[in-house]
Amino acid sequence: MILHSIFRIALGILLFTVTACGSAPRKEAVDPVYKTEEFTAPLATELSVDVGDSILTKGQAAYVEIYTLSGPIKSTMPGAYGVPFAFQIGQTALTKRYRRGHYEYFCAPLEEAGASFPGLGQVVRSGDCIGVRRSISDGSIEWVVDNSNHNGYTTVWSRDYKPEKDPELTQSTGELSAKGSRITMIRFDGFYSNLLHFTLIEHDRSGKTETEFKFDYPPRTGDPVYGIKGNLFQVNNVSNADLEYEWEELSDS
What we know:
By secondary structure, the chain is mostly beta strands. 7% of the residues lie in helices and 54% in strands.
């Protein structure tokens, strides 16, 4: 029995340190931006918002491409010399990470996925991919484990996606990508203590910042025109629940 266990472990080490899947193409970076949207606001047009809503959203938002799973999967796929090994993915999002040859790779967070071989335990490490790969030529999908980082050289394993029994995969857009996103929002936080309350929210490649602004209403002098970072708007009416306003000028930044 002991000799049998030692043989299994030795076989496992051999199978996961031999590139039996052939010479896979080199990993290449891909543009993470899948879709962009432009936002602005009309000038000299009366608008209204409720407390908590944005009076301004402008700039460009960039989204990443993802696949979502309808449920978790626990299955196997052929490893070296066709010996199967186990993989699993929780109900999570698979985000496009890179390309190898004619495939784009969509990977789960490793804390939500795993791949293991009898006698070896987990056979992935940081930088490896458990998820799906999509053919660039025909769009077909395969489950994939790319554990090249764990092995120290290129090892990619896959099996067909079986829609009749595997969890449903839905193509979608994910969270904002830092690359290409620059969004300015101004949120109306309410009117109380004779003050208009706003929050400026800026989202760009360096991260997200929030800055609070307070204005007297009605103003002590002049018209009820206010400015937040070069964006000028006039308040026509305000209550505890909503704000009526119009934009006079929008900054370029």
